[in-house]
Structures are given as C-alpha cells and as structure tokens.
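Example protein as discussed:

>
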Amino acid sequence: MSCAVLDGVVRFRGHHAVTDSDGKPLWGERVVIPLPRVLSESEAAALRRGVASTAKKSSGKRAFYPVSGRVIGLCGAPYTGHSRESVESGGRFYRCSGKEGKELTAKVCDCSYIDAPALESAVWAAIVKALGDANKLEELSAEWVGMADGDVSAYEQRIADLDQQIARLDASITAVIVATAKSTAGQEDAPQAIQAATAALQTERAQLQAMRDDAADWMAEKEAAGNRARELAEIAKMAREELATVDVHRQADYMSLLKVEAFITGPVPVRKGGMPCPVQRWYRSVGVTTVPAADLSDAEWERIAPLLPKGRRDTVRRAVNGIFWKARTGESWNALPPEISRPHSASSYFLTWSKDGTWARVSEALSGADQCPLPADELLPPMRVQVVLDPRLMLLPEELSRTGS
C-alpha cells in the first residue's frame, strides 16, 4: 500500500516530515521521484477500495520505536519494536528478530524481550554524551564540509576534462566512420570495415566513460558526506539545549544523521512488574546518574525558586522534593509519603517541567548540592553503545557507489 506501488512515486519528506513553525520541512524541501508504475491507476484505485472495505480502524496511537534495528542481541540478530497490548502488562517492548525462524527447521533464539522506554533512554543517554561537546561537533563539521567541498571541486574539474576528451573522441569516431564508409561504398564488407576501423577508438571511449562514471560516483559520495557534515553542524547548534528533552520522534530524526549501534553483551533481566520510573528515565536520558540526596535546604530552594511557578503555600517546593524522592527510590507516585507531597501534584508538575525544559534548568542549578546515585536500572542488560560522528562513515548503503567504494 505504499506510494511507490500505488502511485508510482517515492516521496521524501512527505506529510510525516518534521516541519518548522511555517509548516516547511525542517531538513529540506520535499522531493518526489517518479518510478515505473507497478499497477495502473484503475488497478491502484480498485486495490485502495478493497483494502478500505476490510481494514481495521486505527486508533491513531501506534507505538513508535526509534532504535528498532539498531540494537544487536547476543544471538547476533537485531531487536525490533514489538507491541504487547495482548499481554496483561501491556506496554512497548523490543523483541529479538532471532525469534523468527526463516524456515520451519531454523533455530529460534532465546533472547528476552527488553523494555522499550528503558532501552531508548539508555541509547539516547549515550548519544547525548557523545554529542555533549557542541564546539567539537562544529569543528568536526566545518573540517569535513571544507574537505568535501574541495574534493567536489576537484572531481568536477576531472569530469569536465573527461567530457571534453569523450567529445573529441566521438568526433574522431564520426570522422573515421564517414571516411571508411566513403572508401568502402558499394562493398559487401563495408559494415565490418567500419567496425574494424573504429574498434580501437571505441575501446578508448569505453575506458574514458568508465573513468568518468567512477569520478561521478566519488563526487556523489563526497557531496553526501558534506551534506551529513552540515547536518552534524545543525545538531551541534541544538546540542547545547535541546537534546536532553526532545521526544522520541525527534530522537529518531537525529539518529538518522548518525551511525548508532548498541550491542548487548549479557543476559536481559526480567521485569517483576510495574512500569519504569519516569523520573529516573529522564535522568538517564540526559546522562545524569546522581540526584540531590535529601529534601532541599532553604538556600537550595532560593536558588531554583525563580525558575518555578509560585503556587499556593509551599506546594511547589514540596512537589520538587517529591520528584527527587521518586528519583532516589524508584517507587510509584502513589507511594509518595504525604508529608513530602501529594502524588498528583508531584507527577503533574514533573510531566510539565520535563517537557518544557524547566526540570533540566532546575537540575543544572542544583548540581552543587549533595548528591546520591540513582538506583541501578534492573530492566536493561549490559550493553555497549557506539555513536559514530565521522561523516565519511555515516553514508547509508544506498548512497554507496556501485563499486562499493
């Protein structure tokens, strides 16, 4: 049911593209590439009608899995997103594709499911850490943009020279054909004579054309690397303030500009029940491993009070202490002691502050307070996350030349 099949086109940055405040695609203008039609227009219309008559209505809440295919299990197969709404606990998980035997006799792996929010937070925390030095990213980007631009200029000159040589050779081939045709006019072996007279020139032309094609392929690869370096510069601009709080859809956009892989190196713990702590998940997503060890002192509260709404009495201050209590314990909001804060107030404030950047500013302002480590996250297996920033290695497979360069 894709546009490639139904409409004979591929659309880049279509209606799902991330847009700016003016509604324009954030990463460039839309591109439509025509393809040979698989189905005629009438066949495509009939297929749409047939599918629409039997399709289930979507709730519009389909789960999203930004690291699908980027996590490699112990069996060597990648993990992909898997919804388990039919299971009593429900929720989003990642499932090892090694569980899907390609043949009836194929061995099925025993890799366990992984909690999706915990895995995504851990991978994103590694990315945030890798992108933490915005100045370094900008320097790397500028270096590769300059090198790529210089290489492209050299390749453009090389292609222009080869085009001139091919044009001169074509003129020579035409002249030889005309001369041979005149000298062999009326003879039965005239075509063979023309072929023999131009054979050496045709061979030389084929060699020049192959050199020209290789140069064009290299130039395309260098241009692609330069474009990715420029995209890296855009990430560097946002690394200072946005990366810690972006949603999973924006995370996926950033991951598409990098080469990110996570390799599981040990067994996957099995959750005993309950949902992961959203406060701990937020801290891990921004690469922070400690939180204030106790309720805020008056001096600490005065430091962050200007960043927060006033509220009635000490409601906001108690909510902040409640959020830190949850981060330290990992307990549910309902278990929050009443003398600290009301569960609804603390959870509601945290939901708002974590999305609008307020909590990131509060955490930064309290970085000098006495800290204690976050509890160990028992939902994740040991793993190694690789984040490659070199634009030369960030080319997608379809961007490589036919020579595999």
Notes: The radius of gyration is 30 Å. The first helix runs from residue 3 to 6. Residues 160 and 172 are 19 Å apart (CA to CA).
